[in-house]
Amino acid sequence: MGRTIVVTCGATVPFPKLVEAVLALEFLRTIQQRWQFDRLVVQYGKEYRAVFESQLERLDATASTKRDKISKALGIELEAYGEVANVEICGFSFATNIQKLLRTHADLIVSHAGTGSILDALRLQKPLVVVANTGLMDNHQLQIAARFESRGHLVASRGPTTCEVLAAVAAVETCCLTPLDSGKSAQFSNLLANVAYS
Amino acid sequence: MDLEVWSVVLLLVLQWLVVRIILVVPIFGLQHDRLLETASARSVAGSRKLKLFVFLGSGGHTGEMLRLLENYQETLLRPGQTTLTVGVSDEASLARFRHTLGAYLDSQQIEVQVCRFGKAREVGASKLQSAKSVVQTLAGAMWTLTWLKWQFVGQPHLVLLNGPGTCCIIAGWLKLLEIVTTTRSKIVYVESLARTSTLSLSGKLLYPLVDEFVVQWSELCDKYGRARCFEILV
């Protein structure tokens, strides 16, 4: 049975290094042969479509008429599609219903270390690899990734290269992650009620 | 003679202000602390409508605020018993709010009002433009908040804020109104999940001011005495 990896880069700022890492031939071959992933869905962020398409071209991805069919299956309007090394590669810039895609199709999520994306994945109890986007100004991606990793909720990739991301995927595939608590605290709820009605 | 009278009046006003500030600004520690017990107030509250104000900043801040509203909807968004006022400064956040909670709010008959707050500074604006827009933003915000405060008087209400810069203006002005009008402000601030070991600038500014200051990583709780930590809330 085929399995799907969903890569999320965040909505606003592109993360070229992560996209490059997962579009390397070595990455695609390894995930297919070692862990039977046969679909890679990449949410690459705004204004990155042209680069993504040229990367697919460079990979010699087989152009295919299947794009519309797969868009429908995934419930996402895909902008790019190709097949390389028995892996279907799907690309889109951004979607408001990404949660639905993650819930129904993702067997593994590889994400930038933004808190929103981390929470999206963990709340759905999906195996998660995060890659900190260190190219951003004033960001806390490294700290937040380390913090969640130390609690065993996810595996943080040491860096954004193909090798490092593969190592992190290997770790997720072999270890068991700790689910995240629901975020519902009875005490906080009491605090809100007491402040409001006091 | 005249001067003497005026100086006495002035002194009395100052004295009153100082007393109010000490009573009102939470860092002076004159607040009662039974807030974590199950509310007896809540059973009384059964029939009383809650007026809730939240501010949506942008990006990650908006995301966390929406998650808070979802996680705590039993307390914050009770069917037919809540008026929710949403402050926004960008349209994308408002769209996200509608996408995430719109259907729920409609189905639960929760009244929603939207207040727009200007952005303090647009990227690339000149100094003169910036100064002008800061003044306009401030004036607009104060007007909106004063109106909001008026709605809150005598009603159960709550102001829920997290990190965006505009929250400092909101909390500051509400506290000032609290000092001069002897009403309550009831501001709960939740620091962003992204802050693991230091507070954000907004957090630092609002720490002494807001009624309840909540962080999401226990390390911050150890550093800041009046911060409360309930683990991850979003």
UniProtKB/TrEMBL annotation, chain A:
GO terms for biological process: dolichol-linked oligosaccharide biosynthetic process. GO terms for cellular component: UDP-N-acetylglucosamine transferase complex. One of its GO terms (molecular function) is N-acetylglucosaminyldiphosphodolichol N-acetylglucosaminyltransferase activity. It comes from the Eukaryota. It holds the Pfam family Glyco_tran_28_C. Signal peptide: none annotated. Its EC number is 2.4.1.141. It is found in: Endoplasmic reticulum. InterPro entries: Glyco_trans_28_C (IPR007235), UDP-GlcNAc_transferase (IPR052474). It catalyses: an N-acetyl-alpha-D-glucosaminyl-diphospho-di-trans,poly-cis-dolichol + UDP-N-acetyl-alpha-D-glucosamine = an N,N'-diacetylchitobiosyl-diphospho-di-trans,poly-cis-dolichol + UDP + H(+). Keywords: Endoplasmic reticulum, Glycosyltransferase, Transferase. Residues 4-155 form the Glycosyl transferase family 28 C-terminal domain. Belongs to the glycosyltransferase 28 family. Involved in protein N-glycosylation. Essential for the second step of the dolichol-linked oligosaccharide pathway. Heterodimer with ALG14 to form a functional enzyme. This is UDP-N-acetylglucosamine transferase subunit ALG13.
From TrEMBL, chain B:
It is a single-pass membrane protein. GO terms for cellular component: nuclear membrane; UDP-N-acetylglucosamine transferase complex. The keyword Disulfide bond does not apply. The keyword Transmembrane helix applies. Keywords: Endoplasmic reticulum, Membrane, Transmembrane, Transmembrane helix. Coiled coil: none annotated. GO terms for molecular function: N-acetylglucosaminyldiphosphodolichol N-acetylglucosaminyltransferase activity. It is found in: Endoplasmic reticulum membrane; Nucleus membrane. The chain crosses the membrane at residues 6-30. GO terms for biological process: dolichol-linked oligosaccharide biosynthetic process. Belongs to the ALG14 family. Involved in protein N-glycosylation. Essential for the second step of the dolichol-linked oligosaccharide pathway. Anchors the catalytic subunit ALG13 to the ER. Heterodimer with ALG13 to form a functional enzyme. This is UDP-N-acetylglucosamine transferase subunit ALG14. It comes from Lachancea meyersii CBS 8951.
